[in-house]
Amino acid sequence: MNWHNLKENLTYDALSLLLNLQKMKYLFLTILIFTLGCSGEKYSGEAITCLKPEVDKPQCISDMLKSFRLIWLETTEQSLIGNHIGKIKKHNDKYYISTDRKELLIFDKNGFLINKISKIGNGPGEYIQLCDYDIFENDNIAILNANELIIYDKEGVYMKNIPLPFMPFNMKIINDDRILLYTSDEKYMIYEIDALGKIIKGKNKNTRSTQLGRNIAFITYGDSKIITQSGRSKDCTFYDIHTQEFDSAELVCDDILTATKEKFYMKIYGGNYLENLSHVKFIDGISGCNTHLLFGCGSLQSGFTIQVLDLKEKSIHHVISSNDINDITFTSSFFMEYACLAESKDCFITYAFPKDIQMGIEEHKEFMDNPNYRDIEKVFLSNKEELQDENPCLVEFIFK
């Protein structure tokens, strides 16, 4: 038996013993397992090794941004989104938004509804559940429905079905001729298929222990890569669009949860391991564009910050905490958290509901001299109607 196999056998044997004995009495065994199970992790791809220290002095979020824009989505009977957004995608100056009503709404750059797809059923061109969607370069639309892709043209007219040999959760179109799928298949978690649904290759053995359902599983990382996070850990998989190859990497090299440790915790505590280990730091929510990566980082015990990684310099340029001042929408300082529900190559997108923005400007009158405050106030002065059922306002922003 070689040393690698010895480590694996010792880890699982000791783990079985640990589950049947008092945890405090056998704490030294836990330490031993940790040492054996977590050593020797190697990453052939990127590794970000520095985190900027947290800033104690409150900062204005607008000072971190190169630009931002608010897009007020019109609210009509046809365009009503509701309280839940599944995913936002910006493509060719249009905003595609999936809702809990199982609809896909398409708005122009000024927030006016252009079209929508709402075809729930079992017939041709209909879907039971809008699991995910993506847009081809020619504006044709692909909707993921159970174990098939349904293709519509840019007007929403049904074109064809592409059957799949497994049931995916998420999808990402690559150069129109290849598609990445995040799946529950027994063999692999990630598959690359061609435009006809034929499997090209798979990546990442399906352990299930770190498989999380996400609104967006494939995140833009610069101009040529797609990143997928493993569970809540810092371990990631990169897909290079040019070479069409997968690679493994770690996002940050701090005291943040690794995939190995996450599997270990789940063996002991199950899926609720974070309730028992509130001190563990993990990554919760991630978004990217061609210049920056945005991710929430922290623990249930210490709270979270939002880290802003500059991809060119491979370093953290901004850290946003609950102490910072949101002078963009005047709502929570973590209004950017919804950016993990949005996808765009050239910017980040989040959203806020008008009723929350209105409450924010009423509570923060100390910002009355702020130009953005005055612009938002004008919008509400011109709209005296009840805001409870209004569509959300999109916030598009770019970091310095």
Describe this protein's structure.
The chain has three domains: 1-40, no CATH class; 49-72 and 216-400, no CATH class; 85-206, TolB, C-terminal domain (Neuraminidase), CATH 2.120.10.30. It has 400 residues and is α+β, with helices and mostly antiparallel strands. The protein has six helices and 24 strands. 35% of the residues are buried. The termini are far apart. The strands form six sheets. A five-stranded mixed β-sheet has the order 5-4-3-2-22, with no helix packed on it. The chain has a four-stranded antiparallel β-sheet with strand order 6-7-8-9, with no helix packed on it. The chain has a four-stranded antiparallel β-sheet with strand order 10-11-12-13, with no helix packed on it. Helix 1 packs antiparallel against helix 2 (27-38).
Question: What keywords describe this structure?
Answer:
single chain; alpha+beta; Neuraminidase; 3 domains; five-stranded mixed sheet; four-stranded antiparallel sheet; 6 helices; 24 strands; 35% strand; globular
Q: What strand order characterises the main sheet? A: 5-4-3-2-22
Distance between the termini: 54 Å
Discrete helix count: 6
Helix and strand run? HHEEEEEEEEEEEEEEEEEHHEEEEEEHHE
- Count of domain modules: 3
E-strand count: 24
**Mean pLDDT reading:** 84
Measured by DSSP, the beta-strand proportion falls in 35-45%
> Helix- and strand-based class?
alpha+beta
Global Rg: 23 Å
Helix content: 10-25%
The description of the largest β-sheet is: 5 strands, mixed
Shape: globular
